[in-house]
Amino acid sequence: MSEDTSTAQAVEIKPIKVTPDAIHTIGRRKTSTARVWMIPGSGRIVINGLDSIEYLQRPTLQMVIMQPLELLKVADKYDFKVRVSGGGKAGQAGAVRLGISRALAKVDAAYHTELRRGPFLTRDPRMKERKKYGQRGARRRFQYSKR
Description:
The protein is α+β, with helices and mostly antiparallel strands. The protein has a domain at about 25-115: Ribosomal Protein S5, domain 2. The protein has helices spanning about 50-55, 60-70, 90-105, 110-115, and strands spanning about 25-30, 30-40, 45, 50, 80-85. Strands 1-2-5-3-4 form a 5-stranded mixed beta sheet.
């Protein structure tokens, strides 16, 4: 029997070789954590072994990770290898953006001021509030009845 070739699978791309002089940073958003390595290159972004376009399929999420690069006009100067975990795709994209921004800020002090003005160097602290005991949710109470 022949296998069905109509199913499309994500093909791993050629990995980016991380050298000892690579800049390593960490970005976080909600419950997501992104470890980012930046090396001089041609502008490739590899997230968890996949191209960023394949990994973040929504155009808005792709735009989010490209914002600091487009602000500084260095989209084709550096390659990024990213390992991201936790949360959903939107939180992961925010974590990657912060990691990329922090890596660029390490390169040049002028980049740091531009990114700070961006505001791409600000860690967004908002997280989901935990559910409390004796309640239906984080803030929702059970309905009160006098009887």
